[in-house]
Amino acid sequence: MLYWKGDTSDEFYFISKGTIKLYNDQGNAFIKYSNGDMFGDSDALLDLPRDGKAQAITTVVLKSLQIKQFEKLFLNSEDTCLQMIVNARKKRDRHLMLMEKANERVRKKTLDANLVTDLVKSINDEKRN
Question: Is 35 within a domain?
Fold first, then answer.
């Protein structure tokens, strides 16, 4: 486990090798990141708690950047820094939308499974009568 939903976010990560998935609070995977991707940035740049649980699904090699390091690197690059923050907000909004879609898929599968169970029970009841 790399981090849990609600954890403080004072760094973000770059994946050199491997794959991680983010999971919402109901345990549903909502996005996957792999080689060359950056994750954790939307939480860290917006100074918000982690929006999901991050778990490696393969062996991973990560590089991390502390927010304090980020601030020093981009001290004289206000436009770049602002653009990264705007992009972080968009990414966070996308995560929230994907979390809801993941929950909806699980709800639909559960409803479908319940319908099949009810149908089988109804057929079995009719056979008994």
Answer: yes
